[in-house]
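Troubleshooting: if your tokenizer reports a length mismatch, compare your output against this known-good record of 290 residues.
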Amino acid sequence: MLGAMDHVRFVETPTADHPPVVCAFRGWNDGGEAASLALRYLRERWGGRTFAQVDPEEFFDFQVSRPTVRLRDGVTRVIEWPECDFSRATVDGRGVVLFSSSEPNNRWRTFARTVVDVAGSLGSGLLVTLGAFLTDVPHTRPVPVVGSAADEDTAERLGLRRSQYEGPTGIVGVLHDASIQSGLPSVSLWAAVPHYLPSSPNPKAALALVDRACALLGVGVDTSSLQNAAATWERSVARLLAESEELTEYVSRLEAASEEDASELKPEDPVSGEALAAELERFLREQDGG
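Known-good structure output:
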């Protein structure tokens, strides 16, 4: 059996300076594409450079995640396979590693072990995953972000709650299990995305994940362009609601419920309350993994 690291192709040798590793996966864990958009934004703003790639051959069903063909210089046909890229950036004098991929179709344990082994080879002390889930929250309010850690020590040190979820999971859950088994502390950040909106990128939720991740890591990033995208998105949603009296009334009910829930939160509560955490767990249980 091939070792996990045998599935990795290194483009260049990265510096093993104990960088945190931030991961996001397109698909099941990515409501409103908020997680993948957040990671892509961080990579672009931080000038991340690819240093390693996971070979997709063993992990993807290419009839589901089909490769694409493009023309290079208008002449040569090039096949682009599903990307599973590790990139590295230096932020405020610190190294940060970003891993971007679609949720794999096969061999999840080996895939997760591969990601964790790369993190281990760099001496990483923390793995962070970004996710987003669909639930009953209004788009007009600040985006709630639930933060949790699988082990009690990490949760207490970072001011997060310990995960109590039981039920179906995605690659994020498998990755956290592999991380804990290897002794690498891990944190999961999930943004709540309105379920009533069309399936399209949600830059407002992506912005909330970017802000929360940077606060967790103690690094900065210029979010002005993402803020502008979020404002444009809100205006487009407002136009959509203006065309539907029923949808407008529904959002008003969500806003009222949101205000009622907020009045019950403690000022020192770092997340969005137990109700939101329960919503995340309900969402995960209802998924069939497809």
